[in-house]
Amino acid sequence: MLSKLPINYYELAEKFREQQQWYKSITTYRQTIKLNPTFSWYYYKLGQALTQLQNWEETITADQQAIKLNSDFSWSYHHL
Q: Which positions ≥6 away from 35 have C-beta within 8 Å?
């Protein structure tokens, strides 16, 4: 059984992303965010997955949240 630690959900989301299973990846990134909503990296990775589905509105929201949480991480600006 998968532990409910954010890192485990994150690792699972990454596996789905590597397999290009975008819907599963997005769902799992969202679970990770629910468990740790203050870590900008999770929002950044969610934005990347949403981009694959051309879900621009939600991508922008995820990237903006990543920037809000960590304005020093330049890749969030680049992705936005």
A: 4, 5, 6, 9
Q: What is the CATH number of the domain that holds 74?
A: 1.25.40.10
Given a cut of 70, whether residue 52 has pLDDT beyond it is yes
For residue 1, being part of any structural domain is answered with no
Task: Give pLDDT, residue 72.
Answer: 84
Residues 6+ apart with CB under 8 A from 12: 2, 28
What are the phi and psi torsion angles at 70 (to 5°)?
-150, 90
> What local confidence, expressed as pLDDT, does residue 1 receive?
38
- Cα dihedral: 57, 20, 4, 69 (round 10): -40
The pLDDT of residue 5: 63
pTM summary value? 0.85
| Listed residue (65, 35, 3) closest to 45, CA to CA | 65
User: Number of folded domains in the chain?
Assistant: 1
